[in-house]
């Protein structure tokens, strides 16, 4: 993810799911396959500062598992579970390891 802005004194949890575009439906209860979570516990501070967290997930195995290796697009669902946050965006990089 490009960046998730969270407050220091508030815990947050965000779950990430991946699906092939032809199998996922916006608004359905099935978000796709679970890719990972962002979990940040609250800091004990009295001031209300915010900071940005970057979440990197390795999804190569998951993409193969759902048969999406040749897909040009993926459906990414961000499901906030706890706390308030602002997500700057989602970025997927495709590179080959040598």
Automatic annotation (TrEMBL):
<dbReference type="Pfam" id="PF12143">
    <property type="entry name" value="PPO1_KFDV"/>
</dbReference>
<feature type="domain" description="Polyphenol oxidase C-terminal">
    <location>
        <begin position="2"/>
        <end position="93"/>
    </location>
</feature>
<dbReference type="InterPro" id="IPR022740">
    <property type="entry name" value="Polyphenol_oxidase_C"/>
</dbReference>
<dbReference type="GO" id="GO:0004097">
    <property type="term" value="F:catechol oxidase activity"/>
</dbReference>
<protein>
    <recommendedName>
        <fullName>Polyphenol oxidase C-terminal domain-containing protein</fullName>
    </recommendedName>
</protein>
């Amino acid at each position: 993810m490009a960046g998730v802005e969270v407050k220091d004194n508030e815990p947050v949890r965000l779950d990430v799911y991946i699906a092939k575009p032809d199998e996922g439906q916006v608004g359905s209860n099935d978000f796709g396959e679970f890719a990972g979570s962002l979990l940040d516990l609250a800091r004990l501070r009295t001031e209300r500062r915010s900071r940005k967290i970057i979440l990197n997930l390795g999804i190569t195995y998951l993409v193969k598992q759902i048969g999406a290796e040749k897909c040009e697009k993926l459906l990414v669902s961000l499901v906030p579970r706890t706390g308030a946050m602002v997500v700057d965006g989602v970025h997927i990089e495709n590179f080959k390891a040598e």
